[in-house]
């Protein structure tokens, strides 16, 4: 019996099946975020969730592989959302917000992100590879949406997917380099990279040229495109005199 003035202990509430599954996935995601899959055991997940190992097996009878794939699917859904952005502001302003969310995700899931994209883990299967590829394709589709393109031709689609691959590579190098330069500098460079790729592709692809012309009308002089142009045009002008 509780004595007067003593706060009552919170009543125990049994978690529903879905709540327990979410709890276990949360614990697994936290571990996979900062450790490679090979370094995480079911005992680690059980301890992090404050439950027994048999309970983890009850929800994930396939063991660590099933749990890893479920955690990866959950992380992939979150990563895909990073590239979803309402059509507010210029295309490059939207791209800045997309990349800020993406790099925050990379920062928060550093070791797990590296293991995910580099592969080579015993947890890697055709299913995990398909999940990762699905995220890449979804990211490319969202970038095309921001560019205002519904049915891109081969050149434009390849250019965007090439940029997505460059973003991945830059993210991994950034983690290797102890997250230097600062995330905002990396984001600015990645925006410039896409603008430069678009500009270069306009020389040989009429569709991309039309897209760029339409996008430029939405940009502002003090936005990323304007700043990049002011830095690059003097250099290009000097080079032109040498040709």
Tag the structure with descriptive keywords.
mainly alpha, 71% helix, Tetracycline Repressor, domain 2, 243 residues, elongated
In short:
This protein is an all-alpha fold and 243 residues long.
Describe this structure as you would to a colleague.
The chain has 243 residues and is an all-alpha fold. The chain has a domain at 71-222: Tetracycline Repressor, domain 2, CATH 1.10.357.10. The protein contains eleven helices and no strands. The longest helix is centred in the last third of the chain and has 23 residues, at 154-176. The radius of gyration is 23 Å and the shape is elongated. Residues 7-12 have low confidence and may be disordered.
- Write out the CATH superfamily name of the domain at 71-222: Tetracycline Repressor, domain 2
Strand percentage:
under 5%
The CATH class assignment of the domain at 71-222 is Mainly Alpha
The total strand number stands at 0
Given as residue ranges, the uncertain stretches (5+ residues, pLDDT < 50) are: 7-12
What's the CATH architecture of the domain at 71-222?
Orthogonal Bundle
> CA-to-CA gap between the ends?
92 Å
Shape label: elongated
Rg for CA atoms? 23 Å
Topology as H/E string?
HHHHHHHHHHH
The major β-sheet equals: none
Secondary structure category: mainly alpha
Helical coverage, percent range: over 70%
What is the number of helices? 11
Mean pLDDT across the residues is: 86
The CATH topology name of the domain at 71-222 reads Tetracycline Repressor, domain 2
